[in-house]
Amino acid sequence: MYVVGIDLGGTFFKVGLVDAESGKILRKLERETKVNEGGDSVIQRMAEAVEEITEGIEYIGVGIGSPGSIDHDKGIVRFSPNFPGWVNFELGGLLSNKLNKPVFVENDANAFVLGEKWFGAGKGYNHIVALTLGTGVGGGVISHGMLITGHNGIGTELGHVIIEPNGPQCGCGNYGCLEALASATAIRRMALEGQKKFPESVIFQSENVDAKSVFEAAKMGDGLGKAIVDRVVNALSIGIANFIHIFNPEIIVVGGGVSRAGDILFEPIREKVQHLVMPSFKGTYKIVQSPLVEEAGILGAASVILQNVNKPK
After folding, report:
1. Which residues of 81-104 are buried (b: 16+ CB within 10 A; e: fewer)?
2. CA-based R_g, the chain, Å
3. Considering the domain boundaries, does residue 113 fall inside one?
4. What InterPro entries does this protein map onto (predicted)?
5. CATH code of the domain covering residue 229
6. For residues 235 and 187, what is the distance between their CA atoms, to the nearest angstrom?
7. How far apart are CA 225 and CA 206, in angstroms?
């Protein structure tokens, strides 16, 4: 059985043909989104890309992971800052008409947790919290095998739980959100803020000041690097402990570019969360790094079609 996943971004979209049994991406390609040319033009390019990678192969449908507020029941993008003008845009219906196949649309962070459930570290689990640490912090929750989306379908904004009430301002307008403390954007901001006080930090010997250079510096014992990583670990540990108390997951999967830091991030988080959770929650969960890495977007999108096709009647 084959499905198609589309990882839709504001600059590029990726399309993959996925074997639903093995989770292998058999064919994939990337195209410019060209949002400025209008929604109909984007739909046309997406349809052409799907037809190209599925030539000669029968597939059951298309799943799309899209940023923004998504009405997943109707396949509508209600609003997305990445797509100016896409207000109540019927993404799923329009692409379905072009392809004559079922098309399901989901918020990209929700698609991430579905990808973990179907193809990643969450396979075999019915209670999953997933966090993706990239430009922002996204999250999704599965409980009893079902995706939690809330009353209007826009719930589980895990990146916008407030960790430090008087902390740095987040892109959402609030202060001290998890996203403002643990995203790649936040890590870079903290490094640049520390430059005056720590001009000799090895962070600034890198060509690019980014999350990777901060973690590399911390591994070398650099003072600024260690201070930033400590703050990131603290924020993530508080957030994850709260999610454990609220959702009682079996597994917490952390992915996205920042997760590639590996042990320097995960080992202290596991230790700190162990101290933060109530005694009754100790031993009920595990915290793991996502194995999907570069393929998370396509596999997450592909899992959207699987989740809908296999939904209880």
Report:
1. ebbeebeebbbbebbbebbebbbb
2. 20
3. no
4. ATPase_NBD (IPR043129), ROK (IPR000600), ROK_cs (IPR049874)
5. 3.30.420.40
6. 12
7. 13
